[in-house]
Protein 1
Amino acid sequence: FSPPSAHTPPHHQHTPHTYHHCSNTRQVRSLGILRVLRLLRVLRLFKLARFFVSLKLFGQAIWNGMKELWLLLLLLGLVDVIFSGAVYFAEQPNESTVFVSVPDSFWWAIITMTTVGYGDMAPVTLAGRIIGGLCAIVGILLIALPVPFFVNNYTDLAEQHAERHTRHAMVTEMLARLERRKHKREAAEARSARHHEVETDDTKSLLNDGPPIAESAV
């Protein structure tokens, strides 16, 4: 058994390089947390929706059409799987193909259906290009399918809001008219009461200032 050399650090002792690496890792994590918190401050912009009726109605229309939205996502997922598998098998004759697997083809199918087309993945064979064209057409049709539902929801909500605003304006105007009539009636009653008091005071003054009634002669 030979004792460890003096220059060999013990296992429980960390080298300066280890401390430096740990400190850098902590700094990177802290900066990442700060960036996330700064990014969350952007969510304050959604508070502006309280001051815009159209944004409120738009959000409510989206919320009312959640069933159609989930149906759209389900259909897009199914079509994505179908076209991803189809383009993968269609591009297999090409040895330098970028479609190495069906999961890797999901990205191409999503980008093609949404008509974005980054160009990082593109079919080369004739069958792959035909599948790509069909994928784009089906994607456009699927995305355009729920648009009328959201438009109808927004239109209905806008009409309901306009009706409520009109009724509120009519009720406010009616209440204002009733309040004006009430004030006029109270003012008329006050003038009538003052006029009656003046007449009563005049009558009393005339009775007090008139000549005494002579006694009848016996």
Protein 2
Amino acid sequence: PHSLCSGPAAAVHPRETPVMKATGLLLHAALMLAATAVGGGVQGAPDALDVQQFAGKRVLFITAHPDDAEGMAGGLIASLRQVKARVGYLIMTNGDKGGTCYNATARYNCSKADMAALRQQEQYDAARFLGVAADDVRFLDLEDGMLRTYPEAQVLVKVTAFIRVFKPFAVFTWRPQPDFSCPPGKAQQPSSWGDLGYHPDHMQSGQLALDAVFGFATSIAKEYDELAQAGLAPWTVDQFYMFATSGMTSYVAMTEAELQVKVKAYELHKSQFDNPDEVLTNIRWVAKTLASQVGDPSITYAEGYTSFF
């Protein structure tokens, strides 16, 4: 399969405006050009991501929710820490609308404030399990599901500021447009991860990351002179990748043991699932499906990424 979804590309989702579709198509064209440049042609097999190139460097994951980084890139993050890369997380929303609280004996509904606090702690625990320092995990604490409702300039300056603080060599994030081959609820995995191709928070976090990295974290934006005055000098990111559900240009292969590390990291987000077997089933299915796109039968599991620059 070429995607986590089967069948032909879907029509634009009802919430998708013509402007958003046009933006998505323009970015899609750019990504295809990038694939031609780095992968020997659009139809060519993706390249193995050279994790060693990040040795001793800083790599930042900009995501929408607690658990996004482990779910989409847990294998890569573990590999980055093995080569002594410094890994950072910037998480835009607090996850206050998803999941259930729990104690030693039961699961129960709780307030949004309690859910946000729980998900933050789960994120710290999962990051620590993969070797990411708590000081390198930053939350913007915006409301879950509402990222698009915040004034972009206010969020963008915070993203820009953290990029200038962390000074990453590479950034990984969500796609800023839908995967039109994977409409909501159509992913073929056995359970409930139906938002991999379309989620407003995911796309907005990717767009904000791209805007910050491509322009506002550098010296292009005069609006952010106050950041420089505060000692946060412009910073240029060398590489920018997006989590891929289709059209990946790069992949990270995982052995069974490496997959289990990713699963254990995600299992620390206990509020997100009732049955731990569901985590293994979903992650294994996604990793197998992405591995099938690589074209190498010796690779059983993989994570996929699309390189923009």
Protein 3
Amino acid sequence: YNEYIKRFGCRGMREIDVATPRTYENQGKLFDTLKQIDVENNQIINVRQRRDEAYQALLKMSQEMDKEDAFVHHAKNIQSLLGYREHPKYMLVVMIERMRRHALNIGKAFVNEGRIDSVDDIFSLDISQVTEAQKNSKLDLRSLVRAAMDPVDKVAHIKSWPVIIDSRGKIIRGVRKDNEAEDGTLLGDPISPGIVRGKAKVLKSPYEKPLESGEILVARHTEPSWTPLFINAAGVIMEVGGPMQHGAIIAREYGIPCVSGVENAVQLIKDGDLVEVDGSSGTVKFVVEE
């Protein structure tokens, strides 16, 4: 655990944003997620089984084609090297975390001097303002923070941003043309094939509440920090994201049925609702328990 935190504690939600707290800063949330993982039955174990089955099937095909040596060679290279494609981003996140630590230290000094109200106010200042503040102790940092936060405060009441806003600021709302959905059926886009039933768990952030094994994850969207939740998820429903969205890729990698593009899913689906996710046809059905 300590080694994991040392190497990967720098990661977390919106990890490219220097203002976002890192995993190591609130390890309680991570630990709660770890406790929810069923070590005897989870998607990672299922992935390993499917990978081994697929490997054996492809190996048999290569033997029939007299290409066994080439298959084994290339499969080994792919399995051992493909993970390095993630390494550049990992190093970027490591550097951002180092910058965050430095910024927080400066913020603490400004708080101690009575120049800002919160350590996090440092992230409302740009680099030139911070540099000037370090040289000029009379620079009014509170007014700079208020000016930076003013446009943010004006939209703080918005709970759900439009999916599409064009360059002129026009909000574009699409309307589905397929009107053949039955009562109790929500339409979306097929992302990861398969059909599964389970109780829904609606989350607006990854650590908001526990996702128990076998539940259906319902979210507006996901990003890399949500990945641990997919270990328990039996299926995934999202409002936003196409086939190459991070959650979609993880769902296919884990073999979890997934439907995206389900409008207002987080409002229409409630915790505990029994739903059927069809990741092949892109539908979500409410199931009435008999």
Protein 4
Amino acid sequence: MYFRLLGILALLSLAVPSSPSQSTHCYFNQLCTCKLQSGTGFNYSTTLSTSGAIQSLLQAPVDIRDISCLGVPFGNIPDIPVPYLTHIDVVDAGLEVLESGQIKSATVESLRFMNNKIKIIDDNLFGSISTTLRSLDLSYNQLTELPINSLSRTKSLDWLNLHGNQIVTLADSYYLNFRNTLTTLFLGENQIISLPDDFFSSFKRLLWLNLDNNHIREIPRLSLARTIHTLSLSNNQIRTFPLEAIEALASLTWFTIRGNYIETIPEKPFGYKKRMDKLDLGENFISSIP
């Protein structure tokens, strides 16, 4: 758990763009950290010491943009009465249910709820930020299915991480608005057994797909988005090299399928017009190369 949290903290530092800012304890919870835009002239420490109490929304520093609560125990998303937030991190807090109405700011672009115990996400959780939310991290939780109803509200989502949950099946993607906007999707370390023929193929802009450490046995011929350039299928139960599925990906340049049960490589050469930068077939049962 300690090393996982260190890794999460490292990802947080990389994922959130740096900007001129100053950090301090949040006035609504001293265990959380707030980042304020610099140059606003707001003396946060002075205001906090003189008030001696939690301020109301009207008294909140309007220049707060990023809030991070790491290892702070919460039963629900904390009440964050700040009007113009862009990033919220609630990591390793013990969250189990994400209810609607808990995100007060309508300007949030990035949410990170990693390493919690989330099992249920309300259908309307993202309703107030449907057009602004671009990045969502729900990795290392306890979701057993893709939260289709709640995700269907998002209209600008670009980056989605569901790594390390307990998702078994992938439902119909027809109602997912983000299939028109999503470029990066992490679904590794779940319990996925099969890929529906038409799930990923309906995604219009998907570039990066990670399905490592699942129980996938085969890759149907037309199951993947044709726009993918980075695909990882390592540590599954694939027995046949998915040549037809791969040949349909005209932009694929990075493909990892190590740690499966593949014994032979097709003698037919790949029909690529573009050079592949990486093909990783390690830790399979391949005895010869045609």
